[in-house]
Amino acid sequence: MIQDEDTPEADKGLAQRPLIHLIYGLFALGILSFGLFGPAIIAAVVLAYLKRADLVGTVYAGHIDWVIRTFWWGLLWLVLSAIATVIFVGFVTGAVAMIWIIYRLIKGWLAHCAGETPLPGF
Description:
Mean pLDDT is 86; it is low at 1-9. The chain has four helices and no strands. It has one domain. It is elongated and about 45 Å long. The chain is mainly alpha-helical and 122 residues long. It has helices at 16-32, 38-51, 61-84, 90-113.
């Protein structure tokens, strides 16, 4: 069977669908281990940035953007929460930020499993 160049699996390297699973898996490993495997999150984001150009125009491009935005916005809110611990509200905002990150991780991964792109928003 000859594959068309426009099909998602025509990539010569790691197939694109498992690549997205790997990125979500690394991100989840880092989050759910409470930072013990924090470098896994960095690896997921670096991998997302490295493969971003290869996935332009595919259904997977939205997932790459989703993971990258989740990382940067989550990092911003966690840093602001760490600063806000001085006035004792940082613990609450940090917990809300972690719940938001986990929510986006689950929402994106479920959309990927369904063969869809995560919907923009929350």
